[in-house]
Design goal:
heterodimer, A: 123 residues, mainly alpha, Helix Hairpins, two-stranded antiparallel sheet, 2 helices, 2 strands, B: 186 residues, alpha+beta, two-stranded antiparallel ribbon, 4 helices, 4 strands, 15% strand
Chain lengths: 123, 186
């Protein structure tokens, strides 16, 4: 990933490069998690809207491998709780991504200052 | 990050990639080809271990929601039994066929423990067991995450070392060509 010429690599540079590489891997993982969580939240929201349109007193709700017939209000509650959880999860991942990106930005500035164009920090 | 307490004994099993303080000193008495081959072999080994860890991470990440699903089901049964109401549910007979059941007075469930064993547990115990498993899964995930980062460090160090040796070689050759070229010209 890097081909430092010019300035020689000191141990502290190597450690910075290692940290950058770790963060980069972490960022990709977080991106994947975010996509999955966003899809979940979207599905839950949609389900909530659909349930609101129903007149039925009981609604089949998936728990484990079964469809459990639950009172509509309870299903609405459960969906809302699940949605809140999913949204909290999204916020958490987004916060972590911001932290990782900030740290990567710092390292990038330091490493580019030392190695200039002879280092390539891929995203 | 790099100084964090080790979460596993992987560093004892897999030695860390050595950092070269000075390429020139390191290369003394060795050929570039020799060193590069060595580094490439080490890189391959680290890559192999990384692939294994990624696989393990994926398995654990898959297991987590599975346990959560079981826990959710047990929790529902607990809640229903507290309310004292029978539960009507559709359960799958095969992928496309569902049957309706009335479930009342559930006090225990059978948990699949693996290795062809299924054990009956009172609902409370089942919940406790699943919660322990969920916590264990999260702990294992943290360990694998740590191991992955450790291997990642070794991979990056080896990659940088390869680049440094390669660059050193190019410079060295250029220098030699320069001195011998200058010598013949004089």
């Amino acid at each position: 990933m890097a081909a430092p010429q010019g300035a020689d690599v000191r141990l502290e540079d190597q450690q910075k490069i290692n940290t950058f590489s770790r963060l980069n891997t972490r960022l990709h993982e977080l991106e994947a998690q975010l996509t999955a969580k966003k899809a979940d939240a979207e599905d839950l929201e949609e389900a909530g809207n659909e349930v609101m349109l129903l007149d039925d007193e009981t609604v089949p709700y998936v728990v484990g491998e079964c469809l459990v017939h639950l009172p509509r209000e309870e299903v609405e509650e459960r969906l809302q709780t699940a949605l809140d959880e999913a949204q909290a999860g999204i916020k958490e991942v987004e916060g972590e991504m911001r932290r990782v990106k900030a740290q990567m930005g710092e390292l990038k500035t330091l490493l580019y200052a030392r190695f200039g164009s002879s280092i390539n920090l891929e995203e | 990050m790099a100084e964090s307490e080790p979460l596993s004994n992987l560093p004892e099993l897999v030695p860390a990639a050595a950092f070269m303080d000075d390429v020139h000193t390191f290369m003394k008495g060795r050929t570039t080809e020799e060193v590069l081959t060595e580094l490439r072999t080490a890189h391959q080994k680290y890559k192999y271990i990384e692939a294994e860890l990624v696989q393990r991470k994926r398995r654990l990440a898959f297991k987590q929601p599975e346990i959560k699903k079981c826990l959710e089901a047990v929790n529902l049964l607990l809640q229903r039994s507290e309310e004292g109401e029978p539960t009507v549910l559709d359960f799958s007979l095969s992928d496309q066929v569902f049957a309706r059941a009335r479930v009342a007075d559930v006090t225990s469930v059978n948990l699949w423990l693996g290795a062809d064993v299924m054990l009956e547990y009172p609902l409370q115990d089942a919940r406790a067991l699943l919660e322990t498993q969920l916590a264990g899964c999260a702990r294992q995930l943290a360990v694998v995450q740590w191991e992955h980062e450790y291997i990642k460090d070794q991979l990056t160090t080896t990659e940088v070392s390869m680049a440094r040796v390669y660059n050193w070689d190019v410079q060295n050759r250029r220098q030699q060509a320069g001195t011998s070229g200058g010598g013949s010209g004089a």
